[in-house]
Amino acid sequence: MDENSYQHKPLIGIDIGGTAIKGGIVNVQDGRLLGEPFRVPTPQPATPQAIAESVSRVADELSARPEAPEPGTPMGVTFPGIIQRGVVRSAANVDKSWLNTNIEALLSARLGLPVEVINDADAAGLAEARYGAGAGVAGTVLVITLGTGIGSAFISDGRLVPNTELGHLEIDGHNAESKASAAARERAGLSWNEYSLLLQRYLSHIEFLFSPELVIVGGGISERAHDYLPHIKLRVPIVPAVLRNEAGIIGAAGEAASNHQAILSHWAPATDTF
Ligand code: BGC
């Protein structure tokens, strides 16, 4: 199989979130979904075994469709924590039993195919940089996702620096995501104007630290961008994400396509690897 073979084939991407696990079949050439996404509620407690079961349900539904990838095609999956060489290294907003779990080995064994797992914001960021609001932008693009937590993707000339975790910057003595995430806004009952002030403080600091060419705001509340983005003033352009809820699915599938040789080389369909 030639190096780019998966760039011309459909791949499945699955996005593990706090409320839902969503998947879709992705044409990685143009970043579009083939057919409708499929979602199931995130099981509670969201333990590794329970999540693996739900991911498998999503994968089974998608794999049974006529436009599904060939059996054995690598699959891309996102997770809302640090992922280093397939292992979960942080669990800020998920069940703590995930810590140090080899999620790639767990899902590969459960699904019987090679799986690549990356951080959820990294996946969304890669999708926006490749196919969305950051397409064609040279230099540093920062994608900040505002949801239950704050996620970040740092992309330089199209290449991702993974696991940047800028949602956990300490600002004015607080972990940024505890004050400026979408969930924090709801918890504190803030108006959009009040929330804009917190976001301004956070995003100005990030702009100062990294001098990006473009800032893209994603996550659940990118749909309400008109309520807060007009109040945010940065030196550089700041725009809403365009791929919305599907960015994670698309980014995960795209990454699995790009990295398929590495994924295949360390994949063995054994069950005793985790
Ligand atoms: C996690 C990140 C994740 C973000 C968005 C944060 O709490 O530490 O890894 O990307 O939430 O889900």
Overall description:
The protein has 274 residues and is of the alpha/beta class. It has two domains: 5-120 and 252-265, Nucleotidyltransferase, domain 5 (2-Layer Sandwich); 133-242, Nucleotidyltransferase, domain 5 (2-Layer Sandwich). Helices cover 33% and strands 25% of the residues. The protein contains nine helices and 14 strands. A five-stranded mixed beta sheet has the order 3-2-1-4-7. Strand 1 and strand 2 form a beta hairpin. Helix 3 crosses helix 8 (247-258). It is globular. The chain starts with 9 loop residues before the first strand and ends in a 9-residue tail after the last helix. The relative contact order is 0.17. The model is unreliable at 270-274 (pLDDT under 50). Beta-D-glucopyranose (BGC) binds at residues 80-82, 90, 92-93, 119-121, 145, 147, 149, 151, 165, 167, 177.
The main pleated sheet reads as:
5 strands, mixed
User: Mind telling me which CATH architecture of the largest domain this is?
Assistant: 2-Layer Sandwich
Unique bound compounds = beta-D-glucopyranose
Q: Which strand-content bin applies to the residues?
A: 15-25%
Global Rg: 18 Å
Task: Give the class-level CATH name of the largest domain.
Answer: Alpha Beta
CATH level-4 homologous superfamily of the largest domain: ATPase, nucleotide binding domain
